[in-house]
Amino acid sequence: MTVHITVRKPAPASCVAFGLRLRTLRAALSKTQGEFASDLGIAVKTAKNYEGGHRDPPATLVALVCIKFTVDPAWLLLGDAARPMFQSTPREGA
User: Fold this and answer.
1) What pLDDT, in 10s, does the model give residues 15-57?
2) How far is CA 58 from the centre of its chain?
């Protein structure tokens, strides 16, 4: 009898931390995962993977989140606690 075991590598800490910040943002906006995903034009499963730290979003999606919701990029990408989650003024063209 042969037993096959699949070992999954844990997500990098940076992915998990980003996912937690994304989840925190979504909660601050009072949106469900479905609403948030729809706002960004992505599948709900994709949003869950980002929040769970299983996948890194492309830079274009990170930029869209920052522009659409006036989020400070340093807060979202780096978790800079000295920066507020939201920018005080909306970006031009948003």
Assistant:
1) 668 999 999 999 999 999 999 999 999 999 999 999 999 999 9
2) 10
Contact 68, 74 (CB under 8 A): no
Tokens 């075991």: give the residue: 5
Let me know how long the chain is. Answer: 94
CA distances from 82 to 22, 68, 85, 87, 93 (A): 17, 22, 10, 13, 26
* Cα 55 from chain centroid (whole Å): 10
Task: Name the nearest CA neighbour of 43 among 60, 27, 57, 59.
Answer: 57
Single out the residue of 73, 57, 15, 78 nearest to residue 86, CA to CA. Answer: 73
